[in-house]
């Protein structure tokens, strides 16, 4: 079964998404990198995350933030985008999914961090290459939902040392992984990224 094109209502804005429903009550919502720099739901990292979760039997929902692709509206500096993520979580919840993970890559991880306290339906959150030197993650303090943080050893936007310094304040029990040789775009490292997520989900 391939992913199905869907429409998600985020307030008065209609967002496009891709949904794959699998048996059971587990699911994941995946948020994409920066809209102003070409980020969308077809990004290679977003697709790798979806594949990893599908392999473990999770339903997956990826979507385009407002103003991206066929999604209505316009870029809102991470504010309206929080509503978009919540709308996607609600959509998956309304389909009967209860153990919902929230995975964000780069800008997507920042949006998720900003809204995490509002997202009551999120069981766990995964952060991939959070751009901590470019965006303000100070809102994220002692949150047990943050369970896995990943970046690359060659990531010039989410420097692994900068990220590692912050993880303990996000959740002292979160798993931190550095993928050797990976840059911010994971162009040759999506397999390693998928394997890292696979290993995390094995513990479920």
Strand order of the largest sheet: 1-2-4-3-5-6-7-8
Q: Biggest sheet, open or closed, and with what strands and sense?
A: 8 strands, mixed
CATH level 1 class label: Alpha Beta
Order of H and E elements: EEEHEHEHEEHEH
**Percent helix:** 25-40%
CATH homologous superfamily caption: Alpha/Beta hydrolase fold, catalytic domain
Q: Tell me what portion of residues adopts beta-strand conformation.
A: 25-35%
CA-based gyration radius: 15 Å
Total of helices:
5
Separation of the first and last Cα atoms? 24 Å
Which CATH architecture is right? 3-Layer(aba) Sandwich
Mean residue pLDDT: 97
Number of domains: 1
Could you tell me the CATH topology label.
Rossmann fold
**Uncertain spans:** none
* Helical/strand content category: alpha/beta
Total strand count, please? 8
Described by the principal axes of the CA atoms, the overall outline is: globular
Describe the model.
- The protein is α/β, with parallel strands linked by helices and 204 residues long.
- It has one domain (4-202): Rossmann fold.
- 29% of the residues lie in helices and 25% in strands.
- Strand 5, helix 3 (107-115) and strand 6 (122-128) form a beta-alpha-beta unit.
- Helix 1 runs parallel beside helix 5 and helix 2 (80-94) packs across helix 3 (107-115).
- 47% of the residues are buried.
